[in-house]
Amino acid sequence: MSSASPKATNIVWHQASVDRDARAEQRGHRSAILWFTGLSGAGKSTLANAVNQALFERGLATYVLDGDNIRHGLCRDLGFSDADREENIRRIGEVAKLFLDSGVIVLTAFVSPFRADRDKARALVGEGDFLEIFCSADLSVCEERDTKGLYAKARAGDIKEFTGISSPYEAPEHPELSVDTGAGELETCVNEVVSALESRGIIPAQA
Amino acid sequence: MSSASPKATNIVWHQASVDRDARAEQRGHRSAILWFTGLSGAGKSTLANAVNQALFERGLATYVLDGDNIRHGLCRDLGFSDADREENIRRIGEVAKLFLDSGVIVLTAFVSPFRADRDKARALVGEGDFLEIFCSADLSVCEERDTKGLYAKARAGDIKEFTGISSPYEAPEHPELSVDTGAGELETCVNEVVSALESRGIIPAQA
Q1: Which residue of B has its CA nearest to A8?
Q2: What distance in Å separates residue A160's CA from the closest CA in chain B?
């Protein structure tokens, strides 16, 4: 803080700012966007929340963006048309960028089926700030799980343009990490993500 | 983390979650939304950034949302029509709620001239989570400062519906805090905001 300010009506106030580097230094870790992508039922949200929990237990600043806190809030005005899906992912990318700037490791868990939309989110931030994490459970596994009953509805035609059934899923070509959320155990998948953060120097390696 | 997961294709993964209370306990402070409102030139962004700096120096988790990081990002698709201004404030309220949920003290610095819009943002969160902070510099002071030259343009008719000149500013009726950003010194104003956070138990009082 400045020690003195001019006593005039037309005060010129100094604009303070706390940047990412300052927060990283204080917290002992860098921020990043962990962008989980995969089919419905692939385990994106579960994995993201488990990673979030593991990082929280290390005292790191983290947050998960997923359907639960986005679709009924920021994106409540959006439906499922092509334009609305694109806008949905655009907003999520912008919000993730704000969390990144705030020094938080932000985990996004959305199907985000289109490469172009994911690439736009990636382009918003710097090299190394965006880690695309492909949850690779394949369609047969996801459909067998059908935890929300959505595949059955999609097969019955009750849901239109459902990713994997009636709308394409464009798998990442060069994701920073691909995790086998089909047959892998949760703990193994979590460790793979956490190791990737350590090896990239985003978080300190645990002793 | 669970110590074991079932080894089956149709794995039921436990959904972990880290809530606000857990983060507050770990960080030693609660989260809150500090919603700064006032005329253009009243010093909202400067005050918010100075408070942010002061809280950062205490090691607290904070972030500022203002025109710089919102208008060119999340709200780049919005103009200045009534509907777009309302949507702008709606999105800011929703993003502030996400930061609140993540355990961060989030400071928003926007003119936000309409009571109804501010009240909607307040209604998104719980009692005590939203502190409306009125930056009370009056029009004559703001127009005299005219740091961005906007008042001159508004008087010349080059900017339409400019708050205070050709569009109303509805001052808060019962703000949690009113700060004299017209004649007050920055350091005094910062201390008033920080004291309010201490007295409400959001942050610990400094020894």
Answers
A1: B183
A2: 25
- Residue A186, classed as helix, strand or coil, is helix
Return phi, psi of residue A170, to 5°: -95, 100
pLDDT in tens, B101-137: 999 999 999 999 999 999 999 999 999 999 999 999 9
Please state which CATH number belongs to domain A20-140+171-198: 3.40.50.300
Q: pLDDT above 70 covers what percent of chain A?
A: 92
Nearest to B189 by CA among B176, B198, B197, B180: B180
Distance from CA of B39 to the nearest CA of A (A): 15
B window 76-95, beta carbon within 8 A of A: 77, 87, 91, 94-95
Which entry of B112, B136, B167, B195 is annotated as an active-site residue?
Answer: B112
* Measured CA distances, B12 to A44, A55, A130 (Å): 13, 22, 28
Is A102 within 8 Å of B145 when comparing Cβ atoms?
no
Residues 47-66 of A with CB under 8 A from B: 47, 49-50, 52-54, 56, 59, 61-63, 65
The residue ranges of every structural domain in chain B are 20-138+171-199
Closest-CA residue in chain B for A93? B74
What does the block give as tokens for B169? Answer: 């500013």
Q: Which CATH class, in words, describes the domain spanning B20-138+171-199? A: alpha beta
Q: Which amino acid is at A58?
A: R
B159: exposed, middle or buried (Cβ count in 10 Å: 0-12, 13-18, 19+) = middle
Q: Per-residue pLDDT tens for A40-80?
A: 999 999 999 999 999 999 999 999 999 989 998 999 999 88
Catalytically active residues of A are 112
Q: Do B50 and A182 touch (CB under 8 A)?
A: no
- Where does residue A155 rank: exposed (0-12), middle (13-18), buried (19+ CB within 10 A)? middle
Q: Could you tell me where the DSSP H helices lie in B58-138?
A: 67-69, 82-101, 115-123
B71-97 per-residue burial string, b: 16 or more CB within 10 A, e: under 16:
eebbbeebeeeeeebebbbbbbbbbbb
Closest CA in chain A for residue B10: A145
